[in-house]
Amino acid sequence: MTPLAKVGVRVHGIAPATTLHALALVERFLPGPVDSGPPRPGHDVDLGDVTRAASTLDRTSAQRWHEHDDQIS
Questions:
Q1: d(CA 24, CA 26)
Q2: List of residues 6+ apart from 55 with CB closer than 8 A
Q3: Cα gap 28→32, rounded to integer Å
């Protein structure tokens, strides 16, 4: 586990209610579902220009090593 995860576990052990309230507050700022269609694989979702540029090496490596179970467009 990462050091931050270890700290999170200890804080939750000391103050579980406070941790849950903090996580509920963070959840309010997360984006909701985009559409109600069937789930799609992560490599099939439109990521936008910045994220697409940052994940180019991951996508090309996955294509090279055949790590996707369906066709990549």
A1: 5
A2: 47
A3: 9
Cα-based distances in Å from 45 to 39, 50, 66? 10, 14, 18
Token reading at 73:
């467009």
Instruction: Please name the residue ranges forming H helices in 1-73.
Output: 3-14, 16-29, 49-54, 56-64
The rounded distance, in Å, linking the Cα atoms of 60 and 56 is 6
Largest CA distance in the chain: 48
pLDDT in tens, the chain (73 residues): 899 999 999 999 999 999 999 999 999 888 777 766 777 776 676 767 767 677 778 778 888 887 766 655 4
User: Which letter does DSSP use for residue 47 in this model?
Assistant: -
Q: Please name the amino acid found at residue 16.
A: P
